[in-house]
Amino acid sequence: MSTEKFISINGRKISYIEEGSVTARPVIFVHGFPFSKAMWADQVAALKDTVRVLAYDVRGYGNSEPGEATFSIDLFADDLLAFMDALKLDKAVVCGLSMGGYIALNAIQKQPQRFSGLMLIDTQCGADSPEGKEKRMKTIAFIQKNGLEVYAEESLKNLFAPVSFETRPKEVNFIRTTILNTPAEVICRTLQALADRKESCSYLPNIKIPVCVVVGSEDKITPPQVAQKMADAIAEPKLMVIERAGHLTNLEAPDAFNNVALEFFKNLTL
To answer: Is the dihedral of CA 246, 83, 70, 126 positive or negative?
Structure first.
């Protein structure tokens, strides 16, 4: 088990883990919503002998303090760049899953020179549609009235491929517990941030570094055709579809995911 560390960023405490040689290529994993850095445990173990692996808790999640500022993907991206500053990382590969992908795509627009590679995992570049925004507002109202139990169970149905409920019960339970242990207020603040986020599709052709787009074949939230559209807009894309996985490829098919990541990291030259 990795030792948890803390660092002060933008006026509040952020929790992170770090494994591997400090002289190796730094790779930062950014978790999805509403999870924590713990979702990357398998990747940390599998990749630490090849790269310097870092995974942190986005503000309000895991053991990172939420702070008072209004949540936004823009703010989360500033936190990512400040995290790199605090650890004196001039450049890093950034791997973002779902919301983590939104954060990575926002951050690269601010400081593209800080990125040596990008993994966009189970994510998309589009903003919420009006219907999507409305659904998030209804979810906020539902959680405020009813708590997280029903929300957690409904989320699991969308997050995992049907087969994962049989083959990956431990991972399903881990995500259920993670959601239930997250403060409802933090989840609602983040739902608002997700609803308000801007699109980043128009920026994709400007990305000049290698990009690996990863998607589960059974992802209901950001399906393979969404990943294909992103890859088509990127100059140096690699698209990997992971079979029998839903929206959490790193948890549902860890061996396949880790192999994809290792190959991507080994082929980077920057």
So the answer is: negative
**CB burial string 9-34: b at 16+ within 10 A, e below:** beeeebbbbbbbeeebbbbbbbbbbb
75, amino acid identity: L
Structural domain range at position 240: 5-127+199-266
Residue 126 confidence (pLDDT) above 90: yes
CATH number of the domain within which 81 lies: 3.40.50.1820
34 preceded by a cis bond (ω within 30 of 0) = yes
Asked whether the whole model's pTM tops 0.90, one would answer yes
pLDDT tens string 190-214: 999 999 999 999 999 999 999 999 9
Q: What Rg value do the Cα atoms of the chain yield, rounded?
A: 17
Domain count, the chain: 1
